[in-house]
Amino acid sequence: MAIRNQLRLLLVAGSLLTASLAKPVERPFDDSDDDTPLPLVIWHGLGDTYQADGMRRVAELADEVNPGTLVYAIRMDENAGRDRYASFMGNLTDQVAKACADIAAHPILSTAPAIDAVGFSQGGQFLRAYVERCNNPPVRSLITFGSQHNGITAFRDCAATDWVCRVAMAVLKGDAWSGAVQRRLVPAQYFRDPAQYDKYLEHSNFLADINNERAAKSEQYRENIAKLANFVMYMFEDDTTVIPKETAWFDEVNGTETTPLRARKLYAEDWLGLRALDRKGGLKFRTAPGDHMQLSEELLREAFGDFFGPLNLRAGRSEPRPMLVGDGEL
């Protein structure tokens, strides 16, 4: 009853948004001579808004690095307050569908041969879901910063005055696997505790699907990820917000034991196309100094210069992460 009352308290601040999934369109990346930068879409993180000063500065930096870049910030509502609320509250199936529909209907994005994408924190796995589920227009390069690709095993702390965050976290800690929580609270939908793996597979509303972990695999998901030119995953070296921080690289952390992506069954059997992408040099592991989302403009400029710009851009300067002890072979 307490959980139900807390959910009702959250629901008064907004409502779920629904939209139809757009069908993927096959648009192979060609050797165009056009030097116009590809459009860039960005998706903010938990507790942020598409109109935040930080997101505006990201758009400015993208244009400074590659002049003429059209930047579109994904939002669940034109009202910034309701957009922030939706980062805590909503059904991620509906939210990704809305992003797919909005991008496909955009007068400029919809006519582009491809787009680039950058996701901050949870926005990274949401953009990966865009690639897997619709990809219309297709993403060329996807960059994620501190994203929870392999889920989280604990929930974040909240500021004393942030009642939306505090109520949401209280509900999550109560029963993350209930149908009501999985349909309505965003962080619960990428909660993944290896100690409760069977419950996760049965009840997860989002992550178990986009990670292709269930018995029935989506070939579309695998193909769409494998078609990326670059998938660049940044992990914050001193991240204390995202637990475990290694989720940013798809690593599996179970207690004190860490299994790198390349040593996981998900990679060996190529459930998501990550192995195919890695073999062509498109899967890149990078680190960022500091705690969660402590991003410098220098690092953003470097990333935008390496992977964004015109369609015929080179593949980016960085090599994939060197093989580590325990990693699977390429």
Fold and architecture overview:
Pfam families: Palm_thioest. InterPro entries: AB_hydrolase_fold (IPR029058), Palm_thioest (IPR002472). GO terms for molecular function: palmitoyl-(protein) hydrolase activity. Belongs to the palmitoyl-protein thioesterase family. There is one protein chain. The protein has a six-stranded parallel sheet with strand order 2-1-3-4-5-8, sandwiched between helices. A two-stranded antiparallel ribbon has the order 6-7. Helix content is 35%, strand content 12%. It starts with a helix and ends in a 23-residue tail after the last helix.
Task: Describe the structure in brief.
The chain is an alpha/beta fold. It contains 13 helices and 8 strands.
Write out key terms for the chains shown.
330 residues, alpha/beta, six-stranded parallel β-sheet, two-stranded antiparallel ribbon, 8 strands, 12% strand, disordered C terminus
